[in-house]
Amino acid sequence: MINVCDINVMKPLLAEHGFHFSKAKGQNFLTQKWVPESIAQDAGVDKTAGVLEIGPGIGPLTQQLCLRAGKVCAVELDKRLAPILEKTVGEFDNLEIIWDDVLNQDVPGLIREKFAGLRPMACANLPYYITSPILTALLEADCFDSVTVMVQKEVAVRIAAKPGSEDYSAFTVFCQYYAEPKLLFDVPAHCFLPQPKVTSAVIQLNVRKERNWDIADEKIFFRLVRASFAQRRKKLSNGLASGFPELGKTGAAEVIEAAGFDANVRGETLSIPEFARIANEIARRKNND
Ligand code: SAM
After folding, report:
1. Whole-model pTM?
2. 97 ligand 1 Cβ < 6 A
């Protein structure tokens, strides 16, 4: 197996195929073998796993996944990588490459079709320009045991943030609604070619088997979460009045108090069950209207 992370192997290989990195496609390739090894290892990939990889690039993580998994399905946008991947991962018969934009995929359908009888997982060194849409699609697909990805460190910290902290955001609540995050390790910029301007981190999202949130209406819940963070540092009643104009200022304050909170509470301090209480109060009012 070619060590694609070895810079003395990678550079001639890329040159041989006239390959130039595309910044627009978020191409930063790994140059340290310990990184893809650790991702595959820490993700718990084994023969029972069917792994969806996003953006195999020239295949450093793909190799490590194929060595461990029952099956790997890798979705790559850049067709110029085809002859290179043929050399680096062509030997694996448990690998299928789909040449397309991952955001065009029907993820649940793909998982059903490709991974019957296997434990579905997602693993990737993500293209950073579309981190949020990809994670949103993977979590909403609701078909993975876990999602283990490398992202910008500040995104990883945001995903794992606790209520009341500076990094806690609507995206935190979205991710934690579906999964329990675990920060695995940092990856410094010098581990990539070309080097990104930011530090990266690997985060594991263990998808919750049961979501005991007691949420009457998911749409209202997520609308409330977005409204709460849209006006950070202001009282929740302000965000609520703008996000749900039908409540009006008085209605917004009444909802908050009826759910058992102080009228001055700020949205960024609320946990998921606490958001759920307020969302359920909004839903109850709407049903009574
Ligand atoms: N896995 C390789 C590695 O770790 O060295 C490459 C990671 S690089 C950060 C991101 C990869 O995602 C690139 O190969 C890029 O071409 C691919 N990519 C970018 N946008 C994509 C999209 N919308 N769908 C699928 N792949 C995409």
Report:
1. 0.95
2. no
Concatenating the DSSP letter of every residue in 169-236 gives -HHHHHHHHHEEEEEEEEE-GGGEESPPSS-EEEEEEEE-S--TT--S-HHHHHHHHHHHHHTTTS-H
Q: Which of 206, 194, 267 is nearest to 44 (CA)?
A: 206
Q: Which helix (H) or strand (E) holds 241?
A: helix 236-243
Sequence letter at residue 146 = S
What residues does each domain of the chain span? 7-207, 218-288
Q: Is the CB of 62 under 6 A from ligand 1?
A: no
Render pLDDT for 161-183 as a digit per residue (tens, 0 to 9). Answer: 999 999 999 999 999 999 999 99
Tens of pLDDT, residue by residue over 128-162, are 999 999 999 999 999 999 999 999 999 999 999 99
Distance (Å) from CA 62 to ligand 1 centroid? 12
Rounded to a whole number of angstroms, the CA Rg of the chain reads 22
- Check pocket membership of 27 for ligand 1, CB cut-off 6 A: yes
53 CB within 6 A, ligand 1: no
β-strand pairing of 146-152 with 119-125:
parallel
Of the candidates 218, 220, 207, the one whose C-alpha atom is nearest the C-alpha of residue 107 is 207
Pick the CATH number of 7-207 from 3.40.50.150, 2.40.70.10, 3.90.1170.50, 3.30.470.20: 3.40.50.150
- In the CATH hierarchy, which fold is given to the domain comprising 218-288? Helicase, Ruva Protein; domain 3 (1.10.8)
Tokens matching residue 88: 């680096």
